Amino acid sequence: MVATSEWIKSGDRSHPNLKLIDEVLRHQSTYPGYESDLQKLESLHFAGNKFNFEQTLHRVRESQRIYKGNRSHDRLVKLDALRDTLTYHGWKEDCNKAEDEHLRHEASVEFERMILGIKRKQALHVGDRTHADVQFLDSLSLTYPGWKNDVGKAIDLHKRGFGIAFDRQRMSEIQRMFEGDRSHPRLVALDSLKLTYPGWKRDIKEVEEKHLGISFWCVDGVNADYGALLNRLERKQSQFMNGVEDMSSMNPFQRQIVETHWTYPGHEDDVKAAKLSFHAGLYCHDLEICQIRQMIHDKDFGSHPALIKLGEVRQVLSYPGYKTDMERTRAYLSKNGYHWWSQNKIHEMIEGMKNKQHVYDGSNAAEVASKALAKTLDGVVSGTPTQVRRRSGPMRDLSRLSLAVPMWLRRKTTKRSENQFGCCVVCLFASRTHVFVPCGHMCACQSCSQKLMKKGQKCPMCTQTASMAMEVFLP
């Protein structure tokens, strides 16, 4: 069996991604570090990660163009024009980071944000504070503890090309709360709770911090998530007063998590996290994760679509390490569930396992073909001239064998350009390069001629004893 480190190299690499790496990029790339980038490309192919494969392919091609002095890409033209206008401390480092980002993604919003940040840094450096966000920060009259630190963070975001709409709202609300204004609907709802259980003041502070967080400033008023936070405090108060937790206010999916009898390892932590969670939109997803973990623990692989898919793929896998890849995929599924943001990753992992198996199948085919050729070669060496001339016996076996060899393997073994004398009559793959003495038949490649001379010292065309096999050099 081919060694684990070799089967990927010797297997079926006819997939367009691998052909691109082997036949194009490996010959065209010369920039420093291209070897590691090509290795990453191959790894991404075997991971089934099509998106990152395309992004890394962009990096390889663009890095080679830049290495050759070609900076005609629109983003590089924009960056190079901007360089000539910069004077602030650290501008060279920022430009280098922007160029790295250009190489990282073919279509990069992040690059545009970085360019915007560079322009803003230069404007502040020369004393230009006319931007609306900067003018707003300059106009604030803040007195709450820590306001200078918050303003500094906002300025830093501005310099990095981000907007500060949330920070503007947050600082204004903190100042209002500091001055005693609790008129915001979320604070009114919080203040209406009658709490006496131990630790309620700490919980109130935590909810106030959530009120000031970005997740709640995307919407006005008391949304479902904030309502779940308030329900959690009410349940604590009910349990403190009655000795029993009232779960009637729980989301149905949340309640199902809490009330279901789970047995998989770690279910206690999952139930506790579900009780504390306030992301109402994720309760259904959290329930599915618990169910998947229970199925895997029970070895029930036929009740969930993702587990069924993995079971089907498992039936066709045999490459070295497939069990590790299968466990890694199940672990990812167990951790992230099978929701819209995790389905694509799971499909990529399955596709990666299929890609590995395709190459491994080709490696086995190559090994079988090699052994069959060696066996047939022994027959050719011991055959008679009559057998050879009539293409019976060993030579007929060779002809039949060649038809069973996959086209990718034939192409793989004929990297050298064939000369006008055609292919080797023994392997039927490589070019004829050697002539046998004294019969004069030029009918074998270098590898087969060496094997023939070691085994029986006979010409494969006429089986006449040969004193040597000489390589022919054409002018």
Compact description:
With 475 residues, the protein is mainly alpha-helical. The protein has helices at residues 4-10, 16-28, 34-47, 50-67, 74-83, 91-104, 109-125, 132-139, 147-159, 165-178, 185-191, 200-211, 214-217, 224-242, 252-259, 267-276, 283-297, 305-314, 322-336, 340-382, 385-389, 393-404, 407-412, 446-455; strands at residues 434-437, 442-444, 468-471.
Word description of this protein:
The chain is mostly helical. It contains 24 helices and three strands. The chain has helices at residues 4-10, 16-28, 34-47, 50-67, 74-83, 91-104, 109-125, 132-139, 147-159, 165-178, 185-191, 200-211, 214-217, 224-242, 252-259, 267-276, 283-297, 305-314, 322-336, 340-382, 385-389, 393-404, 407-412, 446-455; strands spanning 434-437, 442-444, 468-471. It has a three-stranded antiparallel sheet. Strand 1 and strand 2 (442-444) form a beta hairpin. Helix 18 (305-314) packs antiparallel against helix 19 (322-336). The longest helix is centred in the C-terminal third of the chain and has 43 residues, at 340-382. Mean pLDDT is 86; it is low at 383-405 and 411-418.
